[in-house]
Automatic annotation (TrEMBL):
Major location category of this protein: membrane
PANTHER family per record: ANOCTAMIN (PTHR12308:SF73)
Keywords: Membrane, Transmembrane, Transmembrane helix
InterPro entries reported in the protein's UniProt record: Anoctamin (IPR007632), Anoctamin_TM (IPR049452)
Record keyword Hydrolase present: no
Transmembrane segments: 143-162, 168-191, 259-278, 290-310, 330-351, 442-468, 489-519, 531-548
Domain of life: Eukaryota
The protein's name: Anoctamin-like protein At1g73020 isoform X3
Amino acid sequence: MAAAELQITKQTRIGMELQFHWEEVKAFERQPDGSLFSWCERFYCYQHLIRGIKNKRQTAITLKYDGKEFKWEVGECLLQKLETEGIVKRVFPLHDETKRKKLLYSWALHWWDFTNQPIDEIYSYFGTKIAVYFAFLGMYTRWLLFPAAFGLTLQIINFGYVLEFRSLRLLVLPIFFVSIILWAIMFSQFWKRKNSALLARWQISYSMEADVGYKLLGMDRSSVQSAEKPVRKAHIKIEKEVFQRNEWFGRLLRFRNDALVILSIICLQLPFELAYAHTYEVMESDIIKFGLTAIYLFAIQYLTQVGGKISVKLIKHEDNENKEKRADSLVYKVFGLYFMQSYIGVFYHALLHRSFLTLRQVLILRLLVSEVLQNLWENSLPYLKYSYKKYRIRSKKRQEKKSSSGKIQFSSRVEKEYLKPSYSASIGEEIEDGLFDDLLELALQFGMIMMFASAFPLAFAFAILNNITEIRTDALKLLTMFKRPQPRAAATIGAWLNIFQFLTVMSICTNCALLAWLYDEEGRWKIEPGLAAILVMEHILLMIKFGFSRFVPEEPAWVRANRMKNATQAQDVCSKRILRSISAEKESREEKEHVVEKEFGMKKEE
């Protein structure tokens, strides 16, 4: 009944997505686990039910709690009143202990499967967005096997340093570069195919929210359906103007905000990053370098946090269609800050010093130290927060009982889970959840190993080891250290896929530049056959990048066939009903005409 009140749309057995009606429950498809509703749908139904408890009496009701009295006004939400009075501290979904323990042993602690994961069970328990993230992480890690093996082979041979044949290095590095670019292009396209296959299995479509059009017009669906014909005609008349105005006004707002972020990055963050990179290079003392790096890390974290907060404020003034669109806008803005922070120092070493050895040292430092420290930080911080909260609560209870000995137990599992930290983003937690930081880490890693692949082929081996660990630690973190996350209905990884594709294009340019420097060590910059071949190769790879999607469709043939079959079935059903209604209308009109003629004949006889 709550789903019907919320006007939730669900996929029917003939493939059409229709508004849910309880009386026609058998017409709707069920989830892979056999349940009627997904976890996301159930969550919003629960929210609707508990927040739908209102005072429907004619007068206010006096409520008592802990010796205090307060008025529950007419039409006021009970839960909102309890939250205002401080009686209810927080509303959050609890972990299902049976399913949680099953996932813990079959997923988080099952290290021997490496990248294999129970994606359908993850979807049923956490929802679409988290399941899609882990499916992406698993596929990305499996696909890393090829470049990791290739890079490890090159590192073992150690060409160019052990061997004296410089021509061998000039031949093998371009082959490796072309291979990993083709690998990245194919991965991006085949991930889209896998994503569409997962959504087809979970009965989820990319379709736009049905209420978006009504929201743009300042109406809801029920008001349009119940409106009289003259009112509908009036709204249809202004519909085009409203849509055009909202479209261009929203685009201008987003363009203004994006321009502000880009200008702030160029004018503020870029000089700061270049100053640090140059100062670090000219310093001779290791102690001074260490102190400078510590100051830099502290300052850059503060600047990134400030930039993220400004981005969130800018997004609130944008005319985005839904929460996922707002989240995508935040991703684009904040990634620009992190892109400059993560890569400008590496670009500095690559551009000015043109030393592969120095560049490799910088990449090893960034990949090993930053990723190890990042994993330790993101996995230990929630545990430390949880332990500290438990310590404070137990100390408070000991003081209340005036006892310094004995074990203090929590009153319920709810109280224990309440102390766990939420799975929230480090920036813009009201828009994004913890997946923002996890996907940001993956994107920065992808950019690091791709854009400088020619200088450090072994980076792919480090990445695959990190990702295998990341799968299990992220699963353990979600199941044991955090509250159960609120589900999100996003069907893809959103803006992050566009960022991965952008980094692929960047890697074509940066690796061609690295190969050009390797070929032209003397700095003559003459268009010789080798250098010309690198420039031609760059243009060919860019053409392949943008043309590969034409050859490999974004959805498998069986998904497309099922969609077409469902569309045909839906068309047949609709056609039959329309024809039946037309025939019934015609018969009714003929009967009325026959009755009128009969009455007219009787009057004529009289």
